[in-house]
Design brief:
The chain is α+β, with helices and mostly antiparallel strands. It is about 30% helix and about 25% strand. The chain is built from eleven helices and 20 strands. A hairpin with a 5-residue loop joins β16 (about 280-285) and β17. α2 (about 40-50) runs parallel beside α7, α2 crosses α10 (about 370-380) and α3 crosses α10 (about 370-380). The longest helix has 16 residues, at about 120-135. The chain is globular and about 65 Å long.
Length: about 425
Amino acid sequence: MSWRLLKYALNRDHAEPRWFNTPTSPKESYDVVIIGAGGHGLACAYYLAKTHGITRIAVLDKGYLGGGNTGRNTTIVRSNYLTPEGVRFYDRGVRLFEGLASELDINLFYSTRGHFTLAHNESTLRTARWRAEVNKHHGIDSQLVGPDEVKRACPQIDLNCGGQHAIVGALYHAPGAIVRHDAVAWGYARAASQMGVEIFQHTEVTGIEMANDRVCGVRTNRGLIKTDKVLSAVAGATPTTLKMVGLKSPVDIVPLQACVTEPMKPWLDPIIVSGSLHVYVSQSARGELVMGAAVDPAELHSTRSSFEFVSSLADQMLDLFPFLAGVKISRQWAGMADMTPDFAPVMGKTAIAGFYLDAGWGTWGFKATPVCGETMAFTLAHDTNHRLIEAFGMERFERMTMLGEKGAAAVGH
């Protein structure tokens, strides 16, 4: 370290300001309490303050900022979904992401790569064609391409997949991108804090107070906080918060695992996904291959990873890219995916006045972070569901008007 650098490092006048300031204890009351200091909760707090002028907000998390699924996902952003409701919703998310680094004044390492969903048989090719037509109808840049286009974009891929699952085509989604997940969470946290939002880590919600079927407060391990508006944005802990207000949970919690390799020289530009092989992969700015597969087969509230996952994933990856045989896996982890019966989220108002829900994200919650924040902020501010989330209400399960987004999942990502 040079003496000049050391001089500035020890000089208080050149100290880096704190990213967010938290009082020693919560206030007696807030206009809004948000449970969950992940991307969705922090984004909602930011847009409530920025767009609607509501700043008396407390964001509570029993762990640390971004320590849940926001910090455990694989950073893919896309809008090539199957239903019109999903396509419109995620397209707004992509558009917000594209300008988010400038808005939050932070380098998010947002990188548009293009997204290939591989088809290995006629059935998956028909689904890809279906998604392409729905996407184009709503102005989304997606198209069906042949094996040659896949090979041109990714010369290293084995189109025969070891002779077992030959690639017959793909859905190509040009806006597909990757972005740093922790930077998104911290960027929203800093911007919200600068407008007066208070963020409390290691603050567990133990109950929700109600009077006359309406929310009136939140009990925490640091005391009671009075409020008449509560947003639950806790992903894998959703059944717990719903139980606090007497609502039946429509989600199942299953682990979703991922891993990264040791850094490599850049070679993989697009994002590659195969539903038939249950694998997806992209290369980070640091050169790591970020890989994942489908959710685990059994319901379990756990973030423990397994050898079975990584060995099976490696086997499928080598069908696609045989030259990776000598590459080492650096680390692996798991998150908790909150899956709904129709693979679409549950958002908006609930049967309990003042209690709002942002849940059911399954395997694609991170890519919805900005649009969730924007739409839920509108919903809380006006006590009316935003037009983009009207179809995502919990009441659809009682009415049997489910959305059927499973065909756009491909694999858990």
